[in-house]
């Protein structure tokens, strides 16, 4: 089996990505980050997801401090936007964007891949039903992939690196359908930008709204706990 690094936040997208990597026959090595996010409880979801989908997989939780830079509702003392329409959500880059986060995470994954002698890295980026993040676009992924093959000893030695984005062209409903096909229990996942200390999702942030809409589109109840439904 070929080794692959999978970026795993514990959310819907990354969990589905892990299941797809495993289905494709990779030996998966998960990487999660404690980066100063206010929703640190998401790491509990990441552990649950890893243990359910790929119990044999490795799992590194890397501690870094993006809170130092701030300027994001995820890491700074800034309110998370609530109850926005889909048009508002998709209109511009929101304050929940964490500066350069995917670039930083992928760089760590690239270093880990070199150590594992892995040529493959999986990330759950997608360009449909997302909150306008510039580091989720295909052009960005392609550019990082070029850089990865210029910057690593493994690639220079002839082992080309591939950044996999299996969800890049799927909307949230399609992602959920894929996950259900793979048997994912989405009650373990956490996508909310503003959960409480017990892990209940707010039901009002952009991530919750897009997730709730997707399950509604599929005619299914969202299988997680929301603050408004306690």
UniProtKB/TrEMBL annotation:
Cofactor (UniProt): Zn(2+)
The reaction(s) this protein catalyses: 7-carboxy-7-carbaguanine + NH4(+) + 2 ATP = 7-cyano-7-carbaguanine + 2 AMP + 2 diphosphate + 2 H(+)
Keyword Aminoacyl-tRNA synthetase assigned: no
Enzyme Commission numbers on file: 6.3.4.20
Binding annotation for Zn(2+): 192, 202, 205, 208
A Gene Ontology molecular function term of the record: ATP binding
Keywords carried by this UniProt record: ATP-binding, Ligase, Metal-binding, Nucleotide-binding, Queuosine biosynthesis, Zinc
Cofactor binding description: Binds 1 zinc ion per subunit.
Pathway(s) the chain acts in: Purine metabolism; 7-cyano-7-deazaguanine biosynthesis
Chain residues that bind ATP: 8-18
One Gene Ontology biological process: tRNA queuosine(34) biosynthetic process
Parts of the chain that traverse the membrane: none
Homology family: Belongs to the QueC family.
PANTHER family named among the record's database cross-references: 7-CYANO-7-DEAZAGUANINE SYNTHASE
General function of this protein: Catalyzes the ATP-dependent conversion of 7-carboxy-7-deazaguanine (CDG) to 7-cyano-7-deazaguanine (preQ(0)).
Protein name: 7-cyano-7-deazaguanine synthase
Provenance organism: Candidatus Aquarickettsia rohweri
Gene designation: queC
